[in-house]
């Protein structure tokens, strides 16, 4: 596929409907899948009607751009910021960082590697496979970057009991994402977006921090 110059695509996720959130909270997978399919169709139609060139799913099945990995990857557990703070070697410094980043809402969870991760786990594949039956437009898949995942999944007091260091975890994260990217290519996805929204903040603001929200 050859994209035209200045092709358009949606950045970020779309709001989830109250029906989808209710279905998720009830834990009814069949109901959730039904509402998810309906809402995904709506998101795709909105993009097509707006003249968007490369469409996305809207990430409706995800709590956020990286926490969904905990649902997909064996060896990863979703932990609240409160749980992470309690295990951090400097709890007060971590809490202060959370407040500074305006993340202290009690609802943010983070994927933490609590065992060696399954590098063959599937992330976007089923989502993209479903989209290919719903649209003729070029499709974009969105995955978190290896740097973002490695930094987010590493908690020394927990992950350090499994992996020698963060670099070793990073090697497995790269394998995980490389395997997924190959699956997406084989499926015929048109664009793969690798998300890393915090890299600039880490480089310019928190480069010397060892206990921060990032």
A few lines on this structure:
With 214 residues, the chain is mainly alpha-helical.
How would you portray this structure in words?
- By secondary structure, this protein is mostly helical.
- The protein folds into two domains: 37 residues, no CATH class; 151 residues, TIM Barrel (Alpha-Beta Barrel).
- It contains ten helices and four strands.
Number of domains: 2
Count helical runs: 10
| Uncertain regions spanning at least 5 consecutive residues | none
Mean pLDDT over all positions: 85
Approximate strand percentage: 5-15%
- Computed over alpha carbons, the radius of gyration is 18 Å
CATH architecture of the largest domain: Alpha-Beta Barrel
CATH topology-level fold name of the largest domain: TIM Barrel
Task: Fill in the keyword field for this structure.
214 residues, mainly alpha, TIM Barrel, 2 domains, two-stranded antiparallel ribbon, two-stranded parallel ribbon, globular
Secondary structure blueprint with pairings:
Elements: H1 18-26, H2 29-49, H3 69-72, E1 76-80, H4 81-87, H5 91-100, E2 109-113, H6 125-131, E3 140-144, H7 146-153, H8 156-159, H9 166-187, E4 191-195, H10 199-204
Parallel strand pairs: 3-4
Antiparallel strand pairs: 1-2
Helix pairs in contact: 1-2, 4-5, 7-9
């Amino acid at each position: 596929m050859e994209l035209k110059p200045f092709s358009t695509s949606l950045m970020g996720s779309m709001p989830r409907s109250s029906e989808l959130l209710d279905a998720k909270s009830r834990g009814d997978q069949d109901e959730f899948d039904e509402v998810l399919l309906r809402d995904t169709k709506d998101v795709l139609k909105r993009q097509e009607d707006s003249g968007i060139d490369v469409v996305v799913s809207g990430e409706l099945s995800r709590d956020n751009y990286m926490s969904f990995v905990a649902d997909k990857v064996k060896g990863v557990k979703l932990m609240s910021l409160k749980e992470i703070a309690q295990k951090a070697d400097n709890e007060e410094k971590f809490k202060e960082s959370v407040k500074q980043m305006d993340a202290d809402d009690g609802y943010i969870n983070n994927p933490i590697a609590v065992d060696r991760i399954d590098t063959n786990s599937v992330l976007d594949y089923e989502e993209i496979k479903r989209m290919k039956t719903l649209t003729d437009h070029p499709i974009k898949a969105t995955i978190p970057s290896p740097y973002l995942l490695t930094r987010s999944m590493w908690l020394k007091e927990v992950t350090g009991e499994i992996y020698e260091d963060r670099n070793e975890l990073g090697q497995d994260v790269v394998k995980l994402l490389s395997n997924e990217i190959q699956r997406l290519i084989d499926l015929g996805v048109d664009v793969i977006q690798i998300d890393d929204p915090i890299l600039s903040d880490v480089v310019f603001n928190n480069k010397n921090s060892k206990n921060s929200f990032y």
